[in-house]
Specification:
Blueprint: E1 20-29, E2 37-46, E3 49-60, E4 63-70, H1 72-80, H2 85-98, E5 102-103
Parallel strand pairs: 1-5
Antiparallel strand pairs: 1-2, 2-3, 3-4
């Protein structure tokens, strides 16, 4: 595993990598501040179970970032599975920032960056 770019971020233990698939089901732009933020609804498939989450994606100065929040029922079930919630959420965030996700948008819907609307 490569060294983290942030020297203050602890190294991740390869033994604690959670195999997950990330799906985005809905994307909405904020409309505030020139479309700086997007609101996402999606789910993670982990251990053959579906875990819903919401997230806000934003960026400009300092680069892109995403802040995911797992649904309460997702957090409860993951705790029941003895999952480290902080690590799980950090890995979900990394997948979202790095684009390791699938879009499940309704047919004919274009992601916001391709909608042709001015920003």
């Amino acid at each position: 595993m490569p060294e983290p770019s942030n020297p203050f971020r602890p190294k991740e233990d390869p033994e604690q990598q959670y195999e997950m698939e990330v799906f985005i089901d809905q994307v909405e732009e904020s409309g505030v501040g020139g479309g700086v933020a997007s609101f996402l609804q999606g789910h993670v498939v982990f251990n053959n179970e579906k875990f819903p989450f919401d997230a806000i994606a934003y960026g400009r100065i300092g680069g892109q970032n995403v802040s995911p929040t797992l649904a309460a029922e997702s957090m409860k079930r993951l705790q029941d599975l003895n999952v480290n919630l902080e690590l799980f959420t950090a890995q979900l965030q990394r997948k979202l920032v790095e684009g390791e996700m699938s879009l499940n948008l309704p047919p004919g819907t274009l992601p916001p960056e391709f909608s042709g609307e001015p920003r």
